[in-house]
Amino acid sequence: MLVPLAIIGLIVFLYGIGSAGDHIPVKDVCDKNNKGVWYMCPLCDRQCSYWDLASTTCLYAYVTHFFDNDWTVGLALIASVWATLFLEFWKRRQASLAQEWHTDDFEDEEEPLRPEFAATVTTLKKNEITGKMEPYVPKTTLYSRYGGVFSIIIFMIFLVIAAVVGVVVYRAAVFASLSGNKDKTIQTRARMITSATAAILNLIAINLLKFVYSKLAVWLTDWENPPTRTDYEDSFTWKMYMFQFVNTYASIFYIAFFKSGLVVGTPSRYKRIAGEFRLDGCSEQGCFLELCVQLLIIMVGQQIIGI
After folding, report:
1. For labelling alongside 113, which of 92, 265, 277, 286 has CA 20 to 30 A away?
2. 150 has pLDDT over 90
3. pTM of the entire structure?
4. Residue 66 CB neighbours (<10 A)
5. How many CA atoms are closer than 13 Å to the CA of 67, on its beta-carbon side?
6. Each residue of 280-302: b (16+ CB within 10 Å) or e?
7. pLDDT tens digits for 110-123?
């Protein structure tokens, strides 16, 4: 079911490529007659001068239109509906297979205890329905384990946030260094170089933390010791989901929502690290292209690493 949506997305992307030359903002920005005509205010309060709109943003305007064009809104609506339909059809297929295989109430009535659970639990409790003695974990022990697991997960999430903050500091330091370089080519490409290298660092950090946490999640679930195999898989799944969501999307959320002028400041009022390095804000073209670069490197990098 994902193939049709991928085809629609490719069509929208190809439309963006084909229509970029006729897009009025792109035509205005890339008009050769406008070079040297529209000068914009400096983007920072140190080592920045006035800059020419046409010569600086033409390429970015083209590339941005590839991904953000008139058909993108329609694609977003289709993707939203498609995601809902995909989930509902999956539930329908799951219910059909459960009925066909006679496993509708397997988890509630027929699933046996895990051998590891039965072997390690020493306390027994009488089952009020069957009258048999069954392994039982006291609630105090159970809640203490839940508290320990939750504390470790929160600690790992803070490690992810610390990694993102570290990359933010890297962005500020590298961008300041490249912006002050005597080579004009490096100066003009400073933000793109910073964004690309920072995205690679994020990719490395994501996979290192993922490797460590995947081992830790197995150990935590074993320590928690759920009674059935389904409970074990559910517990392991939510642990991995919570961490992987923050680990994968923290840097993307930072670019999308925390690089605006409200966070990084404005000329003469920039917020700086240690009073020297200014927080990395959006470029003169906005954060959309940088967000695309971040998504491209992380998503494609994840696919390559997973091969």
Report:
1. 92
2. yes
3. 0.76
4. 19
5. 13
6. bbbbebebbbbbbbbbebbeebe
7. 678 888 888 888 88
